[in-house]
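Hi R.,

Here's the chain you asked about this morning:
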Amino acid sequence: MSSDEIILYDLPSKQGFSWSLNPWKTRLALNIKGLPYRTEWVEYPDLKPTFQKLGIPPNDSGPFEYTSPTVRLPNGEYVMESRKIIDRLEALYPDPSLHLDSPYQARTEQFLPKLVGTVRPIFMPLVPVTFLNPPSKQYFEQDREKTLGMPLQEYHAKNAEQAFRDVEPLWKELAGWYAENEGGVWLEGKEIVYADVMVLALMRMLDRLGVAERLWALEGGDVLKKVYDAAAKWFERDTY
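And here is the predicted structure, written out as tokens:
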């Protein structure tokens, strides 16, 4: 490994590409900044033992002790959790900046959990059958079904169609943000910011799951599809 190379610990798919919302935040940031990195794939049940062996302390918040994305920086430092990672990347590699000081950053951090929560009945049941290898599939299904108190497919059957209806005003609201600035496709206009990255990561997962077309058809979807398409070059590197 070259001394200036970053390691990205990502969740594998049976297709061989990156799929998950949170790792995509970091992967996009690395791709936009043009930083040298390589991917190490870690299945869900292997996250804890792998990271414990590396001496990484557990998360200090959230429901899971050990999560992806995690990165190893060239100085040997390990950083876990997408927001902490972008803070370090911006400090160490400030050019090009992803502008964590953008006024859209706080808005997006407050808004996206609501959006993700609304579409969860659509995407969560599809993740294990679409993407996951057997060890992760079993882990994911057991964990999520315990939390939900029902099988994932039952959760999907009961809630997915309502979720498509419930997400429409949120989708429209998000599209409206992109209409606030003229002269470019991004939230701040011509320059992409990390708030855009957070939105793009969700879009990528939904697209790979095959549900994006229904979302593009909703009011505001045409605007958001243009945003997604504008990031195509940064989505190309998704397998290594």
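One quick note: The beta strands are 6-10, 37-41, 70-72, 78-80.

Cheers,
M.
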